[in-house]
């Protein structure tokens, strides 16, 4: 008895005919008949009665099929596991990130993953948090780095942490000479680049801080990279997430400093519960990078 004979028997039982079984397992009809004959010879009893209209299974065949089906469930699990392992090395992961992570965290996590899986393909989409969540729910994305928001639907949260917004200052600013936290309300002589109103309310419920920044705002945008880039180009001050600030600071034209006021920046790495092994691996690297950012902020 061998696996090929069992496959021929099972296909014949499930399809009801030798010809359809041959199509199912991609061999010729005579090959199926020969495989079943060899199986019957090894078992010592008939599995099918040959009639003018085809074959009819015996009671022994029905009993044997119950055992075979249980075995094939196990084989199916093994095949699925093997495919998942293959996907982890050469598959595809769809990742959604908010703009803050487009130049920080995400690129390093993807690079580390590819060191052990050079054939891996990662598709990255830059979206608003609400869009990332929606696309994970509709199976268009596997993972998402987002800012949690009220009413966010249930997804599996792999990592979450509340970071702090920082102040992005021109490199020659008077407060840039020290590492001391900046009191935003002391920046009376400075102009600001700010986020649009809904985002400001997301940052803080301190109306004094919001009103202060709005009164000195020359530019605004909904996009963190745009806010930071405008601040760098114009010499204005911006309150920005630490990830975007770091990508600007490394160019040498601006510096980031902690803020006296505690403006929270929550972050979550979310996914579907049925994510692939490849998505799990990328999620682990993303969490590792976020932990790297978390430590200095503790």
CATH A-level architecture of the largest domain: 3-Layer(aba) Sandwich
Question: Helix count, per DSSP?
Answer: 11
> What's the CATH H-level superfamily name of the largest domain?
Periplasmic binding protein-like II
- What's the story with the biggest beta sheet? 5 strands, mixed
Order of helices and strands: HHHEEHEHEHEEEEHHEHEHEEH
Gyration radius, rounded? 31 Å
Silhouette: rod-shaped
Give a nutshell description of this structure.
With 298 residues, the chain is of the alpha/beta class.
How would you describe this structure in keywords?
21% strand, D-Maltodextrin-Binding Protein, domain 2, alpha/beta, Arc Repressor Mutant, subunit A, 12 strands
Give structural notes.
A five-stranded mixed β-sheet has the order 4-3-5-12-6, sandwiched between helices. The protein is rod-shaped and about 100 Å long. The protein is about 50% helix and about 20% strand. The model has no long low-confidence stretch (mean pLDDT about 85). The chain contains eleven helices and twelve strands. By secondary structure, the chain is of the alpha/beta class. The longest helix has about 30 residues, at about 60-90. Helix 1 (about 5-15) crosses helix 2, helix 2 packs across helix 3 (about 30-45) and helix 4 runs parallel beside helix 11. It has three domains: about 5-90, Winged helix-like DNA-binding domain superfamily/Winged helix DNA-binding domain (Arc Repressor Mutant, subunit A), CATH 1.10.10.10; about 90-160 and about 265-295, Periplasmic binding protein-like II (D-Maltodextrin-Binding Protein, domain 2, 3-Layer(aba) Sandwich), CATH 3.40.190.10; about 165-260, Periplasmic binding protein-like II (D-Maltodextrin-Binding Protein, domain 2, 3-Layer(aba) Sandwich), CATH 3.40.190. The chain has helices spanning about 5-15, 20-25, 30-45, 60-90, 105-115, 130-135, 195-205, 205-215, 225-235, 240-250, 275-295, and strands spanning about 50, 55, 90-95, 120-125, 145, 155-165, 165-170, 190-195, 215-220, 235-240, 255, 265-270.
